[in-house]
Amino acid sequence: MARYRKVDPRIWNDAKFRGLSDNAKLTFFMLLTHPGMTALGAMRATVAGLAEEMGWSAEAFREAFSEVISKGMAEHDPKACFVGLPNFIRYNEPESPNVVKAWIGALDLLPECEQRERTVARAVAYAQGKGKAFSEALPEAFREALSKTMPYQEQEQEQEQEQEQESPSPDGEGGKPAGAGVADPCPHQEIIAAYHRLLPMGRQVREWTPARASALRSRWREKPARQVLAWWERFFTYVSQSAFLTGQVSRPGHKPFELSLDWLVKHENMAKVIEGAYHDVQDAEQGEPAHA
């Protein structure tokens, strides 16, 4: 277990945190400082057990805990007894590669579930973003766990153009006009935030145009598996494992590839990435992907 935790005082500037009730704020701090919270920012726990520790009724704790979850500040799988804090590692980052090696002990304490996979994906992406030494320190179990969650052989079968015509855009382009009363189920901003968090070396999204929204929406709609944020987090983490896509290698005479969300959500580019076209050890020899 992680003995010490860091609490950034800027948390009091955070709108989500300030929007919590007093009980929910206390619940968040309780989870953050819980003796059972691992260095991965997750632990095995039950609502009833946590409520008992707080001296609250299960109903009172569940209500406060639900607030924290609704703000995206915690994750919970009641069947697996999994409780996690998605941003934990960002504020309690590993201070050395040896800390990353020790993560294997924390992984063994977490129950298998989708939230555990997301925790692994975030940990891998963060370690890789810290540099070569941290990336190489990742236990093999983390790489194996991550590889099982990424659909390497997924094949694209839907017709892109047809779906884009059917899909409404926030600005009324490509499909039904704005104001037609059709809600857009694609969580654009959440996916953009995940891209920025997991692929910080990529080009930052400054403006979200109708064309960009349409392309992302099409990729979202193509497969049911993609219609959850966890899939995109796994996808971006998988991308972060490519030395070529992250600009770490390049062909002689060529500039390193500059990654962008626009490029990733184009039909052919996403298909190539998922099929592993840029994850071979010879990434540098494959050339720059088409910017079509």
Brief summary:
By secondary structure, the chain is mainly alpha-helical. The protein contains 16 helices and 3 strands. The chain has helices at 15-18, 22-32, 47-54, 58-70, 88-91, 97-101, 103-107, 114-129, 132-136, 140-147, 160-166, 188-198, 210-222, 229-239, 261-264, 267-274; strands at 42-44, 75-77, 82-84.
Describe this structure in words.
The protein is mainly alpha-helical. Helix content is 46%, strand content 3%. The chain has 16 helices and three strands. The chain has helices spanning 15-18, 22-32, 47-54, 58-70, 88-91, 97-101, 103-107, 114-129, 132-136, 140-147, 160-166, 188-198, 210-222, 229-239, 261-264, 267-274, and strands spanning 42-44, 75-77, 82-84. Strands 1-3-2 form a three-stranded antiparallel beta sheet, with helices on one face. A hairpin with a 4-residue loop joins strand 2 and strand 3 (82-84). Helix 2 crosses helix 4 (58-70), helix 8 (114-129) packs across helix 10 and helix 8 packs parallel to helix 14. Mean pLDDT is 80; it is low at 151-182 and 281-292.
Largest sheet: 3 strands, antiparallel
Strand order of the largest sheet: 1-3-2
Could you spell the SSE succession in H and E letters? HHEHHEEHHHHHHHHHHHH
In percent, how helical is the residue content? Answer: 40-55%
Beta-strand content bin: under 5%
Shape: globular
Q: Structural class given helices, strands, pairing?
A: mainly alpha
Question: How many individual β-strands?
Answer: 3
Catalogue the unreliable spans. 151-182, 281-292
Mean pLDDT: 80
Query: Count of helical segments?
Result: 16
| Rg over alpha carbons | 21 Å
